[in-house]
Amino acid sequence: MLSTINKLKRPIVAVFSGAFATLGFAPYNIWPATILALICLLLVLHRQTAKDAAMLGLLWGLGHFGTGIAWVYEVIYHFGGLPLPVGLSLIGLLIFYLSLYPSLFAYVLRRFPHLPDTLSLLIFAPALWLVVDWLRGWILTGFPWLWPGYSQIDSPLASLAPLLGVQGITLAMMLIAGACVLLITQKRAVFLAPIVVVIVGAFGLGKVEWVAPVTEKPVKIAMIQGNIPQKLKWLPSQRWPTLLSYQDMTRQNWDADIVIWPEAAIPALERDVPDFLSRIDAAARYNNTALVTGVLDQHKDGRYFNNVVTLGSNGTTSYAYPAKEVYSKHHLLVFGEFVPFEEWLRPLAPFFNLAMSSFTPGEYIQPNLNAAGYKLATALCYEILFHQQVRANIHEDTDFILTLSNDAWFGKSIGPHQHLEIARMRALENGKPVLRATNTGLTAAIDYKGNIQEEIPQFEKTFLRADVLTTKGETPYTRIGEWPLNIWVALCMGIVLLSTMKRRNKDKAGQQ
What we know:
This protein has 512 residues and is of the alpha/beta class. It has helices spanning 9-21, 32-45, 50-68, 73-79, 84-110, 117-136, 161-164, 166-186, 192-205, 230-233, 239-251, 274-286, 342-345, 387-392, 415-430, 476-480, 483-511, and strands spanning 212-225, 258-260, 266-269, 290-298, 304-312, 326-328, 369-371, 374-380, 400-405, 434-438, 444-446, 452-455, 462-472. The protein has two domains: 2-208 and 482-511; 212-478, 4-Layer Sandwich (Nitrilase/N-carbamoyl-D-aminoacid amidohydrolase). It is built from 17 helices and 13 strands. Strands 1, 2, 3, 4, 5, 6 and 13 form a seven-stranded mixed sheet that branches. The protein has a six-stranded mixed sheet with strand order 7-8-9-10-11-12, covered by helices on one side. α5 (84-110) runs antiparallel to α6 (117-136). The model has no long low-confidence stretch (mean pLDDT 92). Residues 224-470 form the CN hydrolase domain.
């Protein structure tokens, strides 16, 4: 097979296999596609120089991110106020930047050509991929979108998530990919062993119940999907029609234990609508219900915050501004909620001066919100990507993971589907149900195994009702996080370092 992938064909295979990887993610959900794409990547890198490998890795990334995150252009096109060539250039730069990471992986992998193929593909490559993924999730506040593990939410490998998290799944995928390449290149049946071990292990873990559902009392949840067009959301003339729309739909759901509105559902600062919030609070208390909503606010010192507050049955006596039960978004979206180097960038184009793009972050760890006596670990919109932050805010008595979002920015693209897929992974990792309320969809109740229990269509003004079970106990991932993976990566890198040192000592001895 390798003989057919000559120097001219390798770049083509790299681009198309990178694009093929996107089919593993929502909304396509063809999970074997991403594993096959990783196999192709390792194949085209096989026996290449570091320089050639870097270019092939870049091409793989361009194919993958060019198809997987091009939907970000929806924001630039509709709200950026930029000429078409400039807008296309910006999205091109983003895709190129993300493609540098698989390029870095490929370059470093082939910088050690002396490593035996077995060591390179089964030890070094999986560990190196995790390190590069970690860098992508950290540099410039991080963009851990399209980590390979997310593509397996509906595959047998998903059972690894409660034990090792999403990156444990990525590790398993890379081990399978490396073993497949060894099978193809060396044609030795022994390399079936890693594949069998991973698959059998995954099926075995799938039978383990890490947490226990509380079946005695399902929690009655209502989530309101307002479907407010983003272009109208902040118009002063639309403030009260929007508020009354949410109020009317909520009135039909006061029998729920918890009613949830999406991110920034209230098109005003909290300080500007205390009377409205007081009336909603009183109605919720009268019905023994808690209401959760996203609302922005500005403190007296001028700082803006993207908040979630609970009203009604929330452990306090009554609402008074500012809300006592409040969560402030910590992980802000670059350019959307804060602008780096803003003194230089803001004057350049409207895209760098979007409304509400100067927020202040809340604390990394914040108390769970109280809603009708239930504890909600909150992640606002983009924050649901950051698995360690979500995990850090889950306690033994946490009942739900709450994520509010406004994916109206991304229209009918594949972005909201990928966003929902990520939320499903957080549920599976931590054994906690996820309540996901959005403005235009996809609004969904996700059970503690990561399955969608109830979902309502996009772009409809409606509400979701679901009876959701809470859980007792913690998954191993919730208790210890990624320490097993960190130790494994450190051991692998140590093995590679020792092998390199031995090779150098041997070369020196041969020259004497």
